[in-house]
Amino acid sequence: MKILVHHRASDGTYGSSLITVVLLAEGERVSKNAIAVIMADLGTEGIVRSPTAWAIATTLSSPPSLRAVLSA
Hints:
Layout: H1 2-9, H2 16-25, H3 32-42, H4 66-71
Helix pairs in contact: 2-3
């Protein structure tokens, strides 16, 4: 089954959205919902990437005072 082939080729990271894109690029007539149902029946799922996982957090151990910033 092509869904499992692409899921395994992605090391289990592709979910229904990306597998749908890949299958459509190959000329298959599929929908995201149909792929999601089939993947759920097969017990496969992709990795959910949280937007906060990619956020850059910068902290200063001693932030400058407002007066120091304005006078610079």
